[in-house]
């Protein structure tokens, strides 16, 4: 079994992707929440959660790391868009709770993805040195 640090991206997305789907579904059935329940925002969560689940099932480290970095960057953009009125602010109608979640989750996903990328490069470098 691989050490946990080498599987951190996989573990993160394995937990995060279904949560995205759940948040999207709950947005439709529980409209009174401290976060936005705009239909477009709910669909966004469901769609990206489904993509994340597919990547987890594919067991592709490259796609999983890319998802974590990419979705984390999108989360950070959403916080900026909410604060400045950029697209898709009028469709997603974020709340202050959404903004905080986007900053925290976005930063964590980007850091986890980058850590996994750096760890992968270091492991590949170690393999090259060992075989030389």
Characterization of the model:
With 132 residues, this protein is an all-alpha fold. The protein has one domain (4-126). Helices cover 80% and strands 0% of the residues. The chain contains 5 helices and no strands. The chain has helices spanning 8-29, 39-58, 61-84, 89-92, 96-131. Helix 1 crosses helix 3 and helix 2 packs antiparallel against helix 3 (61-84). It is globular. The chain starts with 7 loop residues before the first helix and ends with a helix. The model is unreliable at 1-5 and 126-132 (pLDDT under 50).
Task: Quickly list its features.
single chain; 132 residues; mainly alpha; disordered C terminus
Summarize the structure.
This protein has 132 residues and is mainly α. The chain is built from 5 helices and no strands. The radius of gyration is 17 Å and the shape is globular.
Which percent range describes the beta-strand content?
under 5%
Q: Main β-sheet: number of strands, strand sense, barrel status?
A: none
Poorly predicted parts: 1-5, 126-132
The figure for the number of domains is: 1
Number of strands: 0
Tell me the helix content: over 70%
Q: Roughly what is the average pLDDT, rounded to an integer?
A: 89
State the helix count: 5
Name the overall outline: globular
Span between termini: 26 Å
Elements, N to C (H/E): HHHHH
C-alpha Rg, in Å? 17 Å
Which structural category do the helix and sheet elements fall into? mainly alpha
- Oligomerization state of this entry? single chain
């Amino acid at each position: 079994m691989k050490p946990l640090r080498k599987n951190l991206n996989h573990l993160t997305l394995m937990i995060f992707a279904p949560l995205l789907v759940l948040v999207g579904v709950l947005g439709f059935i529980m409209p009174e929440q401290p976060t936005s329940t705009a239909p477009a925002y709910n669909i966004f969560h469901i769609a990206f959660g489904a993509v994340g689940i597919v990547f987890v099932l594919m067991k592709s480290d490259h796609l999983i790391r890319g998802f974590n970095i990419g979705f984390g960057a999108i989360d950070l953009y959403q916080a900026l868009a909410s604060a400045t009125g950029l697209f898709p602010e009028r469709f997603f109608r974020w709340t202050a709770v959404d903004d905080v979640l986007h900053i925290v989750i976005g930063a964590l996903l980007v850091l986890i993805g980058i850590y996994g990328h750096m760890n992968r490069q270091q492991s590949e470098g170690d393999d090259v040195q060992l075989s030389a």
